Amino acid sequence: MSIKVFMVDKHRACDELFTAAENAADKGDWALASIKWQAFSEELETHLQMEEVVLFPQFEAATGMTQGPTQVMRMEHVQMRELCKKLSQAVKIKDKSAYLGNADTLLILMQQHNMKEEQMLYPMADRVLSDSESLIDAMTNHECES
Questions:
Q1: Would you tell me which of 24, 42, 70, 77 could form a disulfide with 32, CB atoms 3.0–4.6 Å apart?
Q2: Domains along the chain?
Q3: % of the chain exceeding 70 in pLDDT
Q4: pLDDT of res. 134
Q5: Helix, strand, coil shares of the chain as percentages rounded to 5?
């Protein structure tokens, strides 16, 4: 399996949880929204950690690029985490307007971010990292430790 296929599957899993949380919040089902939001938040953080702890360092070591695409991705991860804090608070206080507004912002950011990763970073990683199976194993093992 390629890095791109593995990571795109992870993106889709996050997308499904995000959509479920947003739909529940939109309907005012805060119990379900809370459960789905928590699942999304955990899945997203695991994904970001897999990239930051395993994939990006390997990519940077192989390419020598530390100020390139991984730096941009890390900055966007910070933005996503900040929006997630706002969304967690909105779920906690059952603020539909705050939730939906921040969810729209996060969705746009994630779509743009994922497109860059899927069209540029992951294919580059597949080209420069010769042992994608070992890297995927390392990311999966990191996922289990999170």
A1: 24
A2: 3-145 (1.20.120.520)
A3: 97
A4: 82
A5: 90, 0, 10
What are the contacts of 88-96 at 24+ separation with CB within 8 A?
A: 88/37, 88/41, 90/25, 91/21, 91/25, 91/30, 91/33, 91/34, 91/37, 94/28, 94/30, 96/25, 96/26, 96/28
User: What's the confidence (pLDDT) of residue 37?
Assistant: 98
Q: In this predicted structure, what is the pLDDT of residue 20?
A: 98
Q: In the chain, what is the straight-line distance between the N-terminal and C-terminal CA atoms, in Å?
A: 22
**Alpha carbons 129 and 36: distance in angstroms, whole number:** 34
Task: Give the residue among 14, 17, 35 at the shortest CA–CA distance from 91.
Answer: 35
Q: What is the biggest distance separating any 2 CA atoms in the chain, rounded to whole angstroms? A: 49
